[in-house]
Inverse folding.
């Protein structure tokens, strides 16, 4: 149930930011996908989010149903691992909120070819190009640990794959928009984890 509430809070925050972007820009660009690739991804992404918000709740409230947890989930030491994953999930939510605040007005849900946003390279973005996606992936891994069922494992595999594809797609777009500044930024940062030993280029604008 701790996981279910964490996931609900995560997507509530995303929904609030979508409303804020819509009110500020008066456009759907950046909220709904306009690229063919992202349109296809969203056909998978929307039901995946629904499943993500539903499966942990069903596992917690209907333990005897087909959605319930296997017996080993409540046995030691795996039960302790599940509680640790729940704690990590809460940290993921907190760090995601910090990343969203850091992005500010530049946050978008989808690639927006008709809009130019600032290149954010401070805070967590000074070390990782996609910290929000990395935290989302980690939260999904925590979900698979807490709810070790086949549907959740399938959901997690699809989610992680989509995040990788979306990150690559956004990088291609941002290279086209920000040019050499973004290429320099990519050389000094990791995609999902920090690139240790790589410093930020002093001639790259922040």
């Amino acid at each position: 149930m701790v996981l279910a509430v964490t996931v609900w809070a995560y997507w509530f925050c995303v929904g609030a930011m979508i409303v804020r972007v819509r009110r500020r820009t008066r456009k759907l660009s950046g909220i709904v996908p306009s690229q063919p690739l992202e349109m296809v991804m969203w056909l998978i992404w929307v039901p995946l989010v629904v499943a993500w918000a539903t499966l942990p709740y069903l596992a917690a409230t209907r333990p005897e149903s087909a959605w319930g947890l296997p017996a080993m989930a409540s046995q030691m030491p795996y039960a302790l691992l599940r509680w640790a994953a729940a704690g990590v999930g809460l940290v993921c939510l907190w760090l995601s909120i910090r990343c969203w605040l850091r992005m500010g007005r530049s946050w978008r849900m989808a690639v927006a070819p008709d809009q130019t946003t600032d290149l954010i390279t401070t805070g967590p973005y000074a070390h990782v190009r996609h910290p929000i996606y990395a935290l989302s992936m980690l939260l999904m891994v925590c979900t698979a640990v807490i709810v070790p069922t086949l549907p959740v494992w399938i959901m997690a595999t699809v989610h992680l794959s989509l995040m990788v594809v979306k990150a690559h797609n956004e990088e291609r777009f941002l290279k086209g928009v920000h040019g050499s500044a973004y290429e320099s930024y990519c050389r000094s940062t990791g995609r999902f984890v920090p690139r240790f030993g790589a410093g930020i280029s002093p001639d790259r604008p922040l």
